[in-house]
Design a protein that fits this description.
Length: 402
C-alpha cells in the first residue's frame, strides 16, 4: 500500500488517541520488576487510580489484560458457581458481559431494556424488592454502553438497591466512562468498578483497572469461582509491598503514570466538562444534518460516544468504509441489533474542538459520497457555533491583534 499523507484520524470510542507525552513515557528500557526501587511506581499508581475512581476505602488493582479481563476478575473474585446475578441488557457490551457471566457458571437473570435506553433503576428495584430471600448476589450495570451511545444513572441504581434494602453487590462496567465521565465509586456505593486503558486513560489497549470496595474484598473469602491469573488474593499479597504476582506490562505502567499526571493537571472536573462540551457539539452537528441519535432521550446521551442513525435505505457500514478509504477517518460500526443502522463517533480522551470539527467534516463528506442527502457544512457549522459560544476561555481574554 502506498504512503498516505497525514495521520489516521481515530474517532472510534476506543482505542483512543494516545498523547505524545504518554507515547514518550512508554519508550523505556526494560528493568527488573523485582528490584528494591520498582515498588515506587506501582505504589504511586494505586494511589492515583483511587483518586480517579473517587474511592478512599476501596482498593485499585491493575491487570495486564483488556477490559474483558476486568469483567471476569470482578465476578470470579466475589461470587461462586450457581450464584444468581441481575443484569440489564441494552447493547452489545452489556450482552457480552452477561455472556461471560454465564460462561463462568453464574445464573444470570436478564432485564431486557430497549436498545437506545439504559439500565432502569425502577425495574432493578422491583426485582430486588421481590427477592425477599436475597438470592440475588449482584447487580451488573454497564455505565456507558458504547454500542448505542447511552449512559446509565449508576447513582439511581444504587438508590433503588438501597430502597429495596438489598445486600447485593453493585458491579459497574466503567470501561468507556471512567476518566471521561463523572464517576464516584464511594458516593454511589459501587462495589466493583472496571476501567480499561484504551479509553479515557488515553493508552493502548493492554491493562485493565479494577476498583474493589471493602465489602467486595470481604466476599472474596467465600467466593468459589475458579480464578488464577485474575485472583485478587495474589494481587493483594504482592501489591502490599509494591510488586505484582507475575511480570507486569512495564511500558504500560509508565504510560499510565503519565496519563494520570495529564488527567490531574487538567483536573477531573475540567475533563468531564470538556467531554460534555465536545459531545454537545457533535449532537448539534447531528441535529444540523437532520439525523437522530440511537439514544432515545437526552437523559441517555453519552458524552464519550454518539451513535448516529443513518436514514432508511442506507447502510452505516458503507459510510464507515468510505470515511476510512477516502478520508482516512476511523468511525465506529453498528454492532449486533444495530449493525448497519448507525455509525459511531467517539469523542473521548485526548481530543479538542478542532480535532472533532475535522472528524465531522470527514463524516459529512462520507455521507454525501454514499448519497445521504445533507447540506454540506450543516453539521460542521452547527458544531462551530456551539463550540465558539461555549468555550470556557472568553474571547475578550485573548490578546488583540497588533
Amino acid at each position: 500500500m502506498s504512503h498516505r499523507p497525514g495521520r489516521n484520524h481515530l474517532f472510534v470510542p476506543g482505542p483512543t488517541n494516545v498523547p505524545d507525552r504518554v507515547q514518550r513515557a512508554m519508550v523505556v528500557a526494560m528493568e527488573d520488576h523485582r528490584s528494591s526501587k520498582f515498588p515506587e511506581l506501582p505504589t504511586h499508581l494505586f494511589a492515583e487510580l483511587k483518586k480517579v475512581f473517587k474511592t478512599h476505602h476501596g482498593q485499585a488493582f491493575i491487570f495486564p489484560s483488556s477490559g474483558t479481563g476486568g469483567w471476569e476478575a470482578a465476578l470470579t473474585n466475589t461470587l461462586s458457581p450457581g450464584d444468581k446475578v441481575l443484569a440489564s441488557r441494552f447493547g452489545q457490551f452489556s450482552h457480552l458481559w452477561i455472556d461471560l457471566a454465564r460462561r463462568i457458571g453464574l445464573n444470570v437473570q436478564v432485564l431486557e431494556e430497549t436498545w437506545g435506553t439504559g439500565a432502569s433503576p425502577e425495574n432493578i428495584g422491583k426485582v430486588l424488592s421481590a427477592d425477599t430471600k436475597h438470592e440475588i448476589k449482584g447487580v451488573m450495570v454497564v455505565h456507558n454502553e458504547t454500542a448505542t451511545g447511552v449512559t446509565s444513572d449508576v447513582a439511581a441504581v444504587r438508590k433503588a438497591m438501597d430502597a429495596a434494602k438489598h445486600p447485593a453487590l453493585l458491579y459497574v462496567d466503567g470501561i468507556s466512562s471512567i476518566a471521561s465521565l463523572d464517576f464516584r465509586m464511594d458516593e454511589w456505593g459501587v462495589d466493583l468498578a472496571i476501567a480499561g486503558s484504551q479509553k479515557g486513560f488515553m493508552l493502548p489497549a493492554g491493562i485493565c483497572m479494577v476498583g474493589a470496595s471493602a465489602k467486595a474484598l470481604e466476599k472474596r473469602k467465600e467466593a468459589k469461582c475458579t480464578r488464577v491469573y485474575f485472583d485478587f488474593e495474589d494481587m493483594i499479597k504482592a501489591n502490599a509491598t509494591g510488586y505484582f504476582p507475575y511480570t507486569p506490562a512495564l511500558p504500560m505502567l509508565y504510560g499510565l503514570k503519565e496519563s494520570l499526571a495529564i488527567l490531574h493537571e487538567e483536573g477531573l472536573d475540567n475533563v468531564f466538562a470538556r467531554h460534555h462540551r465536545l459531545a454537545e457539539g457533535v449532537r448539534a452537528a447531528v441535529k444540523g444534518w437532520g439525523l437522530t441519535l440511537c439514544a432515545k432521550d437526552p437523559k441517555w446521551y453519552s458524552d464519550t460516544v454518539s451513535a448516529v442513525m443513518v436514514p432508511q435505505g442506507f447502510n452505516g457500514a458503507h459510510v464507515i468504509d468510505v470515511a476510512y478509504r477516502r478520508y482516512y477517518l476511523a468511525l465506529g460500526a453498528g454492532l449486533s441489533e444495530v449493525a448497519g443502522k448507525l455509525f459511531r463517533i467517539g469523542h473521548l480522551g485526548d481530543m479538542n474542538e478542532v480535532s472533532l470539527l475535522g472528524a465531522l467534516g470527514g463524516v459529512e463528506m462520507a455521507m454525501l459520497d454514499v448519497g445521504i442527502q445533507i447540506t454540506p457544512g450543516s453539521g460542521v457549522g452547527a458544531a462551530v457555533e456551539y463550540y465558539r459560544s461555549h468555550n470556557p476561555i472568553a474571547k475578550d481574554a485573548m490578546m488583540p491583534r497588533p
